[in-house]
Amino acid sequence: MNIEEAVKTYQTYYCLDCGVCTGSCPVSRILPSFSPRLIVEKALLDLGDELLKDPELWSCLTCSRCFERCPAKINFPEFMRCLREEATRRGTKPVYSHHGMLQTIMELQTRGIHQKKTEWAKEAGKVAASGDTFFFVGCMPYFDVIFRDLGVDSLTVSRNVIKILNAAGIEPVVSDEEACCGHDMLWNGKPEIFKKLAEKNLDVIRQAGAKRVIFNCPEGYYTFRHHYPEFFGELGLEIIHFYDFVQDMIKQGALQLSNGTGAVTYHDPCRLGRMAKIYEGPRHILQTLADGHFHEMERNRENAVCCGTSGWANCSSGSKQIQVERLKEAKHTGAQTLVTACPKCTIHLSCALNNMDMDLQIKDLTTLIAESMD
Amino acid sequence: MLDVGRHPRINLLAYSEVENVSGDAGNFRVKVRKKARFVNEDLCTGCGTCAEKCPTMTVDVFNAELGSRKAIYKYFPQGIPSIYTIDKDACRQLGQGKKCGICAKVCQAKAVDFEQNDGEIQLHVGAIVVATGYDVFDPSVIPEHGYGRIANVVTALEFERLLSASGPTAGHLDRPSDMALEKEIDDLEKEHKKLSRQLKQLEEKHGKSSAQVMDLVKSGAAAADKDLHNWAASAERFGELEARLEPMRQKIGAAQPAKKLAFIQCVGSRDFRFNKFCSSYCCMHSVKEAMIANEHDNEVSSSIFCMDLRAVGRGFEEYKLRGGKQANIKYVRGRVAEITEDDALNPVVWFESTTSRQVLHETFDMVVLATACVPTAGTPKLAELLGIELDSNGFFKTDPLAPLNATRDGIFVCGCAQGPMDIPESVAQASSAAARAAEVVAPARQVAAAGSQ
Question: Which of A76, A184, B122, B238 is the most exposed place for a label (fewest CB within 10 A)?
Answer without folding.
Answer: B122
